[in-house]
Design goal:
By secondary structure, the chain is mainly alpha-helical. It is built from 4 helices and no strands.
Length: about 150
């Protein structure tokens, strides 16, 4: 009778220990899966933001040039409307960055890059336009550099 009792207790303890270790392993696996999904979402979001900002900067440069060439032309109006569309896409991408980025510094760098790009078309001359374009490009590079560690 004593041997049977020891066997039953041993089986129960083995079952409890197995359950405990399997539960821990499942929780670890779930946490790793969530972390990888967030990493992939960040890669996608940061890439989309960078692409949208590059397109917005190109549209802003084009807008400035078309306005400088012929302010009232159809090309100037068309490039202005295109810059509005690109601004909307860049703003949407910035919102996604704000949603998935846990680092406040990176979010601020993204916001700064957006704002610098936004102000490019207001440059009074070619030299200032080129300087603003370079600033916007450098700000985007700073964002990418700050955000990259969170996706490695």
């Amino acid at each position: 009778m004593g041997t049977a009792m020891i066997a039953v207790i041993g089986t129960l303890l083995g079952s409890v220990a197995t359950y405990y270790f399997q539960r821990q392993a499942a929780e670890r696996t779930a946490a790793l899966t969530r972390a990888e999904q967030l990493r992939q979402e960040r890669i996608s979001t940061y890439s989309a933001f960078a692409g949208a900002l590059v397109d917005y900067r190109r549209a802003q440069n084009d807008r400035w040039h078309r306005k400088a060439e012929a302010p009232d032309s159809a090309d100037a109006k068309s490039s202005r409307l295109e810059s509005y569309a690109q601004r909307s896409a860049a703003r949407q991408a910035l919102i996604r960055v704000q949603l998935v980025c846990a680092d406040r510094e990176s979010v601020e760098l993204a916001r700064t890059a957006f704002e610098l790009t936004h102000c490019m078309h207001e440059a009074p001359n070619e030299a200032e336009r080129a300087r603003r374009s370079e600033q916007a490009d450098e700000a985007l590079a700073r964002f990418i550099e700050a955000a990259a560690p969170s996706v490695r």
